[in-house]
Structures are given as structure tokens and as C-alpha cells.
Structure prediction request, 312 residues.
Amino acid sequence: MLIRQNDDILPSEITPPEIYRERRRFMQGMGALAAGAALGGTPDAQAGARLAGVRASAYRLDEEKTPYKDVTRYNNFYEFGTGKSDPAENAASLKTRPWTVTVEGEVGKPGVYDIDTLLKLAPLEERVYRMRCVEGWSMVIPWVGFPLRELVRRAAPTGNARYVEFVTLHDAKQMPGQRARVLDWPYVEGLRMDEAMHPLTLLAVGLYGEVLPNQNGAPIRLVVPWKYGFKSAKSIVKIRFVEKQPLTAWMKAAPQEYGFYSNVNPQVDHPRWSQAKERRIGEFFKRDTLMFNGYVAQVAQLYSGMDLQKFF
Ligand code: MTE
Prediction:
């Protein structure tokens, strides 16, 4: 039996969640105003704002959602530091307006999309997905976004487009973590074309019905729920359609540890640790890791005939 000490109880657990979140938002607003004033700029009015016209979708995992405070304070975003709380503490320096996403490469219709145009590209949906980090923790997150394939179709890929590459902003002034060479910046990720076209693959612009907080990859990020979290590149500025398999930031850094596919697979261990179990944030006992993170029925056919030990 687990006995909890009083000082383990977080304010969020003793204050009704709505009141707690209102208070939190008020205090964040004050913080943002102060930061804006200190930098001489305008605070980012978007962060935390309610997104209008979000449709419910059929992709709603029936599991308890990870609390907002964990989703937004326990992050991996090395551009703002390698600690779990660093992104929430440091990401206020990211300016998400104006913001453009360049679509280029093997496409009939290349273009530079303003983020506010992208937000209207397709109806926004809420999707509750299970997310699994390669480090062994998992969350259940209500994302808001639209399927990547809506953008892919508009770009009209040529017959040579076999992969899609995603590139994060590279600007050490806004992303202080880029001053340290923990990775060869910018952060790059990639998907095979059929993975990019899969209906589960999302371009997310929000979570919990609100505009994405900077630490979660504002203003637009990828979400690929059957792959380890590092495939889901944050704060994207470029989407390139290419013939050759992209060289991702993690493959460059440690090719023996991070493969291109990175599908969640309890039978393929990371060279330094087992992937058989995972810790759902907020839970005490570990759970079994699910093949393709539980999305077998939807995605297994993408990999039929492939040796997943080799193509890890
Ligand atoms: N994208 C960029 N640009 N930089 C990063 O460091 N970390 C990845 C991924 N996307 C990362 C990134 C990893 S390891 C994970 S687990 C997820 O983002 C975490 O997303 P979250 O913080 O929103 O849960």
C-alpha cells in the first residue's frame, strides 16, 4: 500500500481543477505581460487562448487523460534545455507570430504558408492519443489539429516524393538550448510518404482545447502516436518532400540507438534499456508497452513483410 505524505499533495489536487487552472492562467498572463514588457515586445496573445470551432473526432482514446499541468510541464524540447522542466521555464522567448511554414521539394505546389492560413486549412479536430516517449514514460493527450495528409494533398507531391522531412526553427536567440551542441541543429525528423498520409498522423496546433503552449511545440508540431515521441517534431518551419530517406537529428547523433522508423515496439529494446514496460505519468505501477503503442489495427499493414528488428 502506498501511503501519501501530506507534503506530496500538489495545489492542483486540493483546489478544484477549474479554479486552479483559472488561477494558473491568470498568473501566467501576469508572467507573460512582465516578460513582454521586459523584452520591449508584445506578449504572445495566442498562447493558452481557447481554439474556436474544434470538432470532436472518432479518434478518442477511452483512457484517463494526463493532467494539463503534466502535459505542459514535463516536456522534452532540447531547444530550451535538456531538463524536463526547462521547456516550460524557458520557452517564453519563442515568438510564434509571425510564423511561416515552407512547403518545398518534390511537389507540384510549393509554398510558404502563414500560420494563420494553416489554421484554416482544414477543420480542427480534437484527438485523444496515447503518447510514448522512448525514455519509457507515456501520457494520454487531447490534441487539437488536422491530419497532415490535408496539407500533403494540397502540396501535390510528385512521383519522386517518397519521404517527408520536418524541420524545426533554428534560432538560438529564441531557442537558447541551441547554443549547446547537444544535437546538430536544427531538429529534423522524417516520415515515409504512407506514414505521412496515414489518417492518424496529425499536425497539432493545440491541446486541451487551447492554443499549444510554446513548450509543447507552438505554433505547429507533428504528432505520430504509434511512434516514439521524438518523431513528433515541434515548432515546424519547413516541410520538405524528398526522394531519399531524411537523416534525422537523432540518427545523426546516435545511429545505433535511434532508427528511422522508431515505431513503439516492446520487443525491440533500446540498446541501453528495455522497452517492454512504461510508466504512465501519474501512475505508480508500470504498464506493459503496447505494440505500435496500441495502434496495431490501424498501422500494422504499413510494415507488413518488414523486419522490425532491422528497421527499428
Ligand atoms: N521536437 C524538437 N524540435 N525538439 C525536441 O527536443 N523532443 C521530442 C519531441 N519533439 C523534441 C521534439 C521528444 S523526445 C518527445 S518525447 C516529444 O517531443 C515530447 O513532446 P511533449 O513535450 O509535448 O510531450
